[in-house]
Amino acid sequence: MTIRVLIADDHHVVRRGLAFFLKTQQDIEIVGEAANGREAVELAGKYKPDVILMDLVMPEMDGIQATKHIKQSHPSIEIMMLTSFSDQDHVIPAIEAGAAGYQLKDIEPDELVYSIRKLVSGENSLHPKATNHLLKRVSRNNRPPHLIHQLTKREKDVLVELAKGKSNKEIASSLFITEKTVKTHISNIFTKLEVSDRTQAALYAVKHGLSEKN
To answer: In terms of one coarse class, where is the protein primarily found (predicted)?
Structure first.
């Protein structure tokens, strides 16, 4: 499988450096480069990449606004924020906008490739600082814990595996069910827990102790 990647960053040197390295990977193809958020939105619609590496601070439209637009029109496109900012004022809005990945620009090249592959396989890829900010956010969340009790036993099993960072394929293998069934359970989990993505569901599981089971 070839992973089609779009790079969005207002610095030409950064785009060129990322493209130069990623092109050395046999399973990655660079389909385009955007110099600002507006271009990222346009090229996302034109090329339909699998993953977008998105800078946060860009002219015309920033990465968060671009992410919102792209996820609304093309929800299957995975977006990884690749930025220099690790504070909660940037992390939280980026995740809420729909980014499934959040990494800093000092990430090692091999780790970046690994993170891209994780996104395509259905997993999240978050820098430890981003994860810490999300956990603190969840700890302040006043969502009633009784929502957990609405889950069936099998849905709780799936949530536990999801909280471990497993992909749908890995969850299916671990629980001896089909990937289609996993997707159905995850959809039900999102609805019952009133969350919108895997990251929020996983953090909810952590907050209520489900991730410690099994």
So the answer is: cytoplasm
For residues 173 and 156, give the distance between their C-alpha atoms in angstroms, rounded to a whole number. 16
CB distance 69 to 57 below 8 Å: no
* CA–CA gap between residue 71 and residue 76 (Å, rounded): 7
Is the pLDDT higher at 158 or at 139? Answer: 158
Give the confidence band of 146 by pLDDT, cuts at 50, 70, 90: low
Half-sphere exposure of 107 (CA within 13 A, CB side): 30
Exposed, middle or buried, 165 (CB in 10 Å: 0-12/13-18/19+)?
Answer: middle
Please state, as a whole number, how many other Cβ atoms lie within 10 Å of the Cβ of residue 209: 10
Query: Is the Cβ–Cβ distance between 168 and 183 less than 8 Å?
Result: yes
Residue 81 DSSP SS3: strand
Q: Rounded CA gap, 196 and 54, in Å?
A: 20
List of domains in the chain: 3-136 (3.40.50.2300), 143-212 (1.10.10.10)
Residue 128: band (very low, low, confident or very high) from pLDDT cuts 50, 70, 90: low
How many other C-beta atoms lie within 10 A of the C-beta of residue 11? 12
Classify residue 148 by its DSSP letter. G
